[in-house]
Amino acid sequence: TEIDWKAYMQEVEGFANGTLDYTQLKGDTGPLVYPAGFVYIFLGLYYATGRGADIRLAQYLFAGLYLLNLLLVFRIYCRTNKVPPYVFFFMCCASYRIHSIFVLRLFNDPVAMAILFLAINLFLEERWSWGCLLFSLAVSVKMNILLFAPGLLFLLLQRFGLLGCIPKLCICALLQVILGLPFLLVNPVGYLTRSFDLGRQFQFKWTVNWRFLPEEVFQNRAFHAALLLAHLAGLGLFALHRWHRSKESILALLKNPAERKHPSPPLTVNNILWQACRVCPLNASAQIVFVLFSSNFLGVCCSRSLHYQFYVWYFHTLPYLLWCSPTAKLAHMPKVLLLGVIELCWNTYPSTVCSSLSLHICHGLVLLQLWYGTAPPPALHTPPPSRRPAAISKKAQ
């Protein structure tokens, strides 16, 4: 269980010793492949734990991170008011794999996700600039946060229009430049190719989701291209038909929000509170969370490979994705069962043909529920008025 932690410490130790060439930062598991934010955060852990020697202290720190992460997630769920309270028990107590990822293996994935959930809390409070800053910080710890980026871009366009979202995107880009500047000045190509390598090959023996495929298919570039196309198609369909609720064309998102044709919101208690406190009303909070969580889930479904620590990428979002649509009383148990099967798939080591197929089936069921459960209600068609004159009653005659 110490393999990844020791490798992280070896990677940041080179930076602590003055190495600024990113290609020279390595550990027992191979070269450093994470952006600069990872280096700074784990450098702090390196010094806090006596150059990585006090692993017990590191586990205590990650236990605190686990509790903080739960607090941030619960705050998001309370703001949306979609998930029944008993589901939180499964989120806290029912996942051996998540506990292992946080407290036993000390991966960097939980660090990135905790920062991401903090950013989402800021989005819900209408603090978009600070939220974008923390979103970019999460990306600098691990690139999987980019799976949320299509949803965030949609929300920024929806909220600010094209010209208004440019400063927010500049905040994201500027932080990446500032964090990576020491390495960019020494070997810019080495830093960019190592920390943002989108074409990196994964080992077949660690895959959780594609075990049922032959290894030659798993490594085939055509298969990777097909997954990318499926991902883009899924994002396009959700953006057009599930995220975009206005009757206007989706191109209207490029306009200034004041110039769009939409009716003024009704004067409800939620909207009065939003005007007074600059906090999203309940329906707006649910929309923000739905767009971000579904954007990430589409990316997870189309990932070239999922390793065991990647479970934390979407574990805390699954209850919302399952309960974000209206649920009949008898439909709760199948959703709980679905969570249990997904957990079982992630706890099967090594993965098998059965476990990987089951995981894809569960992901497919969640996607179907998202697609049909969040469909806009059908328009009510009133029957056209009859052209025949109304019959005259005998009394009128």
TrEMBL record:
Pathway info: Protein modification; protein glycosylation
Subcellular location: Endoplasmic reticulum membrane
EC number: 2.4.1.258
Swiss-Prot/TrEMBL catalytic activity: an alpha-D-Man-(1->2)-alpha-D-Man-(1->2)-alpha-D-Man-(1->3)-[alpha-D-Man-(1->6)]-beta-D-Man-(1->4)-beta-D-GlcNAc-(1->4)-alpha-D-GlcNAc-diphospho-di-trans,poly-cis-dolichol + a di-trans,poly-cis-dolichyl beta-D-mannosyl phosphate = an alpha-D-Man-(1->2)-alpha-D-Man-(1->2)-alpha-D-Man-(1->3)-[alpha-D-Man-(1->3)-alpha-D-Man-(1->6)]-beta-D-Man-(1->4)-beta-D-GlcNAc-(1->4)-alpha-D-GlcNAc-diphospho-di-trans,poly-cis-dolichol + a di-trans,poly-cis-dolichyl phosphate + H(+)
Classification via InterPro entries: Glycosyltransferase_ALG3
Spans through the membrane: 32-48, 60-77, 106-124, 130-157, 169-186, 222-240
Annotated GO MF terms: dol-P-Man:Man(5)GlcNAc(2)-PP-Dol alpha-1,3-mannosyltransferase activity
Pfam families referenced in this protein's UniProt entry, alphabetically: ALG3
Domain of life: Eukaryota
Alphabetical keyword list: Endoplasmic reticulum, Glycosyltransferase, Membrane, Transferase, Transmembrane, Transmembrane helix
UniProt KW Calcium keyword: no
Membrane-topology annotation of the record: Multi-pass membrane protein
An annotated GO cellular component: endoplasmic reticulum membrane
Summary of the function given for this chain in its UniProt record: Dol-P-Man:Man(5)GlcNAc(2)-PP-Dol alpha-1,3-mannosyltransferase that operates in the biosynthetic pathway of dolichol-linked oligosaccharides, the glycan precursors employed in protein asparagine (N)-glycosylation. The assembly of dolichol-linked oligosaccharides begins on the cytosolic side of the endoplasmic reticulum membrane and finishes in its lumen. The sequential addition of sugars to dolichol pyrophosphate produces dolichol-linked oligosaccharides containing fourteen sugars, including two GlcNAcs, nine mannoses and three glucoses.
PANTHER family with a match to the protein in the record: DOL-P-MAN:MAN(5)GLCNAC(2)-PP-DOL ALPHA-1,3-MANNOSYLTRANSFERASE, NOT56 - RELATED
Protein name: Dol-P-Man:Man(5)GlcNAc(2)-PP-Dol alpha-1,3-mannosyltransferase
